[in-house]
Amino acid sequence: MSEAPLLRLENLSKRFGGLKAVSDVSLSFGEGEIVGLIGSNGAGKTTLVNLVTGHLKPTAGRVTFAGRDVTGAPPYRLARLGLLRTFQVVQPFAQLPARDNVAAAALFAGAAGDMAAARRAADAALERLGIAHVADRLPTQVTLAERKRLELAKSLAAKPKMLFLDEVNAGLNSAEIDGVLDMIRSIAAEGVTIVVIEHLMKVVRGLCTRLVVLHQGALLADGPTDAVARDPKVVDAYLGKRGAAMLEAAR
Amino acid sequence: MKTLSSSPWIGPVLALAGGAILAFGLPVLVGDQAYLLRLATQLALLVTLAIAWNLVGGFTGYPSFATAAFFGLGAYAIAVAQQAGWPAWSGFLLAAVLSALLAAPFGFAILRLRGHYFAIASLMLVTILKEVTTGWSDLTGGGMGINLPGAGGNPTAIATVALETMVILAAAALALSMIVAKGRLGFGLACIRMNETAAMGAGIDAPRLKTIAFTLSAAICGLAGATYARWIGYIDPSDVYDVMWSVRPIIAALIGGVGTVFGPVVGSIVYIAFEELMWRNLLTFGTGALGVLIALLVLLLPAGIIPGILRRRAS
Ligand SMILES: Nc1ncnc2c1ncn2[C@@H]1O[C@H](COP(=O)(O)OP(=O)(O)OP(=O)(O)O)[C@@H](O)[C@H]1O
Ligand SMILES: [Mg+2]
Q: Comparing C-alpha atoms, which of A55, A49, A47 is closest to residue A72?
C-alpha cells in the first residue's frame, strides 16, 4: 500500500483485569479492501472492533482514521466520520419500525438534513438490501435474516467509509448467506472498506482477499487469504487440520 | 407542501392558546372560591412537574428523582431575589437559569449511570440542596424558612395570579414537550431509551442529548418552584425539598402513560381527583387507597391510560 491507509491501528491493547483481550495489535486497512478477521472463540475479535469503533477505550495504543487520531473517540463521532459497525448480537430500536431504525442512522450519522429526508434515505437503504417490505414492521416482527439485513441497512444509511461486520452471517442458512455476501460485495464495490468477522470458512474464502488472524488477543498472521490459510502457525492455532482442509475444499 | 395538520407547530400553538384561555377563563369561573382556586393551581403544578419529569424519565428512560431539587432551588431563587428587592420577573429568570446551570454539569455527570444508580444519584441532589439551603442561613433563613415580601396582597388576588401563572407554565411545558417529541431531539432520546449502545453507534451524541433533556426539565421545575413560592408566600427547606415533589409527578406520569405527550396531563388529573376524593371521604385511608388505585392501574393499564386507549383503538 503506497497511499496512506484509511484506518491504522498502532500497538492497540485492551486489558480486562488480568486478561489481555487485545494485545499490541498493529494493522492498516486501505480503501475498498474486504478483509477477513478470524480467530477462535475469545480470540479478541469483538473487543478489537469495540476498540476501533469507540465502544471501548484502549488501555494502550493509537487509532488513526482518515488521517485523524481518533483514539478513545466516542462511537457517535466515529459513526459521523464514516466508521461503522454491526453488532454480533443485533441491536435494534425495538419499538421503532424498521424504517425509523434506519432513519436514525441516516439522520444522526448520515447526510439527511431532516426526518423526511432521513426516512427517504432509509427506504432507499432497505430497498437496496432487498427488505423494503419490512419497512413498517417492528424489528421483533421480522426474520433473523431480515434483522441482520436491517443492521446492514442502518450502517449503509450512515454513509460509511468503513464497515466492521461482526458475524453478520451467524445463524443464517446457506441461501441467506449468499444473499448477504452479494450485498457486501456491492457495498465494497463503492469503495467502502469492509472487515468481516467470521467463523464460516466458505464466507471468508469467497469474500476476502486478505485475512487477519487473532490468537489470544495477539496478531498471529496478516496477508493474502491463500497464504494465511496455509501458514502452519495459523493451521496449528486456529484452523486445525480440518479447517485447513475445508478452506482448501472451498476454493 | 406541509398540510396544516401535519405541521409540527399546530400542537404547540393549540397548547399555548388553550393555556391562555384556561389561564384567564378559570379565574372567572372559579371566582373567589378558595378551595377551587387551590385545587386548580395544584393540578396545574402537578401537570407541569409531570411533563418536566417525563422529558427525562419518559422520553429518555432515565428515572430521575431530582424534580424536588430543582423545584426547591427555583423556590429559593425567587425568594432570595425578592428579599434583595429584585422585581418578580427577574426572580423567575433566576430560578430557571440557576436550575439549568446546576442541571447541565450535574446531569452530564450522573446520566452516565443507569437504572437504580441513576435514580439514587438524582435523589442525592435533593438531599444536598436541602442541606446547603438549611446551612446557608445568612442567605436563605436556614431551617426557619423565608418570606416572599413582594408577594403580598389579598389572598384571592395572590391565588388568582398563582393559578394564571401555573396554567401558563403548564401549557408552555406541554408545548415544549410536543416540540421535543416531534423533533430531532425527541427522536434521538427515543433511540437512547430503546438502546443506548445502538444509538451511539448510529451517530447519536447520547451524553449531549440526555444533558439537554435533563437541563430543560430542570428549568421547568425551577419555574414551577418559583411560582409555588410566590403562591405560598413562605417557604422552608422541608417543604420545597420534600421528596414528594419528586414522587407525585412520577406517579402521575405512570398513571397517564410514561413517555407519551399527554400521559402526564391525564395522569395528573386522575391523581389529583383521586387524592381529593380520598381527603374528603376517607381521610385516614387516603394513602392506602392511593396504593390500591396504583395497583389497579398497573394491573389494568400497565403502560398507563394513554397507551391503553391507543391500543384499544388500534385493535
Ligand atoms: N467487557 C468485558 N469484560 C471482561 N472480559 C471481556 C469483556 N469483553 C470480552 N471479554 C473477554 O475478552 C476475551 C475476548 O473476547 P471477544 O468477545 O473479543 O472474543 P471474540 O474473538 O469476539 O469471540 P467470539 O468468536 O466468541 O465472538 C474473552 O476472553 C472475553 O471473555
Ligand atoms: Mg465476537
A: A55
